[in-house]
Amino acid sequence: MRKHILPAFIMALLCQSAFAQTTINRDPEIEQMVKEVSADSLKAYIYKMVSFGTRNTLSTQTDSKRGIGAARNWVLSKFNEFAKQSNGRLTAFIDTTTLQPDKRRVDTLLVLGNVVATLKGTDPTDNRIFLISGHLDNMRSNVMDRTGDAPGANDDASGSAAVIECARIMSKHNFPATIIFITVSGEEQGLLGANFMASKAKKEGFNIEAVLNNDIMGSNNSNETNIIDNTRIRVFSEGLPAYETEKNAKTIRQLGLENDGKARQLARYVKETGERYVENLEVVMIYRNDRFLRGGDHTPYVENGFAAVRFTEMNENYTRQHQNVRTENGINYGDLPEHVDFEYLRKNSAMNLSNLANLSKAPAMPEEVKIETRKLTNTSSLTWKAPKSGKVKGYYILLRETTSAFWQKKIFTTQTEYTLPYSKDNYFFAVQSVSETGNESLAVVPGIAGR
Prior knowledge:
Blueprint: H1 2-20, H2 28-36, H3 39-50, H4 68-83, E1 90-99, E2 110-119, E3 128-135, H5 157-170, E4 178-184, H6 192-203, E5 207-214, E6 232-236, H7 242-255, H8 262-277, E7 282-286, H9 299-303, E8 308-313, E9 326-328, E10 331-333, H10 342-361, E11 367-372, E12 380-385, E13 394-401, E14 409-413, E15 417-420, E16 427-434, E17 447-449
């Protein structure tokens, strides 16, 4: 008997030590905001959006109770309600543009409207913007059907509900950077609202550092495979946007940066941050800009040079997307609210909120991040400059092996230069600014110094 006591005791200590080494450092303010995300609030928003009968972009804009016009007026009223608790920092309006018929999915003169709420940052020297989006419009089996009922509970009242809930909670807090909450129209007609906003942002020089697009993110089960899973959500991100590839193709190939575009870096960030703050949720990185041969509202931002990703539930149910409500061959079709898992939607909304808050509280990204290449060494020397805005406690140096999807190590320093005992041949590196409360900026991959 005695022979087994000591090994068992040692094993217990080892297990205790292993658990003790896992430390999750959370910002208490963000942790509290995450706790405020309410499944009941999300449910109320979705049922209200469904009550408008149809939200097809081509539907009526004059009826006070039905159609896209009534729906966007209701969203605006919610944003204005939240503005009362923001000390004047949250402002909202319906941003409109007039579109001509395109002979495809718009067959009449159309006043397109996005509902936009802006939570102004508190730091006058910080011009960064972080944007969260969902699309308010929906469709029946025929995208041109503007009169029949179309619930659109998951596609995409779920994403719009996440936007509204984040605005409700975050409008009560102060952030150095600016946050835009937007529900767009025209997604089903060809990403019209997102194209309008992304083009405007580029033309007017908005410093948008991240776009979180939410589309179909509230249901937990698939058709055909019958998989049920409310513990994972996908984040889609493009590795290399087209606008960079030709210009920087030689450098990208030489340094092996095919997996390190801005959207992919944002995806890594949202995975780490979301999993830090939301229990029982895995953010699964998908190495595609969107689902196979499909598109979403983040794409116009990517095409205009902004870092943008899409969140979508893990297992889509196609009997509930773009379908008239009906029963056919024993199958219930239609995007009804009773198919939404509101606890799953709560977790996915909280994941969005934690990322928006962490990004907005962080300093700006470090400037002029470089890696020394004048000598052949088995060490790697990085240098950088302080960010343009934000109070910096220090910096994280990130590293991962070339085959790793995620950053594997994180080293803190208060300096602006650091030599690592890791070969640049075998690892990728990046640097983040860190605030006094531990909030990290997006990661910056080093450029080349010494050539």
